[in-house]
């Protein structure tokens, strides 16, 4: 017996986008409250914001601009528009959320794990509805298409360089907790984002 799937409706896409963006912004709020960093484009934006004092939201939005053209060429218009909307909304929410959420006590170890779980669920929601938070993942797929070099290796190399730079800006315990958070994000995605098991489109 074969199972059939139907495309998500616009309303389903909208709620998934709202959930994903809100959870991603909450994750970054946890991360920056603790002074931690993460991988990929978000991690680059966090490091730049720490080094310059510029707001994460504006940096994250600007960094992603060059990747939209790559996304359009490889993924199509719908993906690019959803991603542009997700990045824009997340950038705005990250700016606003510290006014709505404050932490009296948050251990960096638990905060790192919480960040990873929240951010992983956010990315899953976006991925399953044809969107992303842009950036290095799109570039990695383009490099894979052009050269055959695996996208995962490109992302791993980028993250290794990012954490090496982080060691020059942050104390090593913060970088260690940051690595834990990034590991949790990737585990959530690796375990749950499987087309052979989860067939919703």
TrEMBL record:
Instruction: Read off the Pfam families from this record.
Output: YitT_membrane
Q: What is the lineage of its organism?
A: Bacteria, Pseudomonadati, Pseudomonadota, Alphaproteobacteria, Rhodobacterales
UniProt name for this protein: Uncharacterized 5xTM membrane YitT family protein
State which residue ranges cross the membrane. Answer: 16-36, 42-63, 75-97, 109-127, 174-191
Q: Which UniProt keywords apply?
A: Cell membrane, Membrane, Transmembrane, Transmembrane helix
Where does the protein end up? Cell membrane
Q: How does it sit in the membrane?
A: Multi-pass membrane protein
Primary localisation category: membrane
Q: Which domain of life is it from?
A: Bacteria
Q: Which GO terms describe its cellular component?
A: plasma membrane
């Amino acid at each position: 017996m074969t199972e059939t799937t139907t495309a998500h409706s616009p309303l389903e896409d909208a709620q998934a986008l709202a959930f994903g963006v809100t959870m991603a912004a909450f994750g970054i709020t946890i991360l920056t409250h603790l002074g931690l960093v993460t991988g990929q484009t978000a991690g680059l934006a966090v490091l730049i914001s720490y080094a310059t004092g510029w707001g994460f939201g504006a940096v994250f939005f600007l960094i992603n601009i060059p990747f939209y053209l790559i996304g359009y060429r490889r993924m199509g218009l719908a993906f690019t528009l959803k991603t542009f909307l997700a990045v824009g909304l997340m950038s705005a929410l990250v700016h606003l959320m510290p006014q709505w959420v404050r932490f009296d006590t948050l251990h960096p170890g638990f905060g790192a794990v919480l960040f990873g779980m929240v951010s992983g669920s956010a990315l899953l929601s976006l991925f399953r509805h044809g969107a992303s938070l842009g950036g290095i993942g799109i570039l990695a797929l383009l490099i894979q298409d052009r050269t055959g070099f695996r996208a995962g290796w490109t992302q791993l190399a980028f993250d290794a360089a990012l954490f090496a730079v982080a060691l020059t800006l942050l104390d090593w315990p913060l970088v260690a907790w940051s690595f834990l958070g990034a590991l949790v994000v990737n585990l959530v995605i690796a375990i749950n984002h499987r087309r052979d098991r989860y067939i919703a489109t």
